[in-house]
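tl;dr need the bound structure. longer version: we got a ligand (pyridoxal-5'-phosphate) that a collaborator sent over and nobodys looked at where it sits. i said id run it. heres the input, straight from their email, havent touched it
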Amino acid sequence: MEQRRAYFDHAATTPPDPRVIEAMLPYLTTHWGNPSSIYDEARQARKGLDWARRTVAAVLGAKPNDIVFTSGGTESDNLALRGVAYASRQRGRHIVTSAIEHHAVLHAAERLEQEGFRVTLVPVDRQGFVDLDALAEAITPETTLVSVMYANNEVGTIEPIVEVVRVVKQRNPHTAVHTDAVQAAGALPLEVDTLGVDLLSLRTSCTARRASACSTFGRAHRSSRRSWGALRSGTAAQEPRTWPALSAWPRRSSWRTKSSMRGTPTAARCVTSCSMSCRRACEGRM
Ligand SMILES: Cc1ncc(COP(=O)(O)O)c(C=O)c1O
């Protein structure tokens, strides 16, 4: 008797779509250059990277330079949590997240707790929905970040992110809101302005049969090109609304070394999404 296998774990990852493989091949063979360099291989890689950035930005309703590519969802979540926590640490050391977050968020929060931050875990109901009253109660003037996932990876609950943002901003307009949208790609609306979030982590391999490579996008303040760099390194101690203008930021050698991490921050937003390798596959499908 013929045995057939069926794969039912697409929420964990998907097999690569042949179109994704085809789209990636040029970047693994001929366009392998460092996109920051000046020779032909590099310029082709740069073109692909820029294209991917524009595509991802369009999906999110964001600016291309707000996108910073990362290695995956875990790195993006860590970037969001640790970046905001350290960048805003002079304003407050309190972070709020939900009890049903992915370990990428929960472990990052635990680590921050070990490093002296206060973390509040907001409970959820039987269906996994975040308790909005408890969330409101948890926010204090010292709360710099709230992280609530968009779609849960175990039970599939879709959290009311627009409501979460409303509740948080009512209590403290300076608190940044991050959502882990790793399970939402390809299934739910992702426009950051509609959601109202300040940071969003996205991975494309879970739901959309795209390349598994990921990226991070970030913008931190309209007046500062470099505030996203500061968010990444946690070196910006200033309150985001008062971060100084570009000219006032100290130069950091790392800011310009990795083109894949480059960004032109304009607001406290960060999104993770697919890399240039899936650019063609993304076309018309995101
Ligand atoms: C909701 C959620 N967040 C974060 C992650 C971590 O993503 P990655 O495996 O790309 O690090 C996952 C992985 O499945 C996830 O489902």
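gonna send this back to them w/ a short note. The pocket of pyridoxal-5'-phosphate is lined by residues 12, 72-74, 77, 102, 104, 149, 153, 180, 182-183, 203, 206, 214 (CB under 6 Å).
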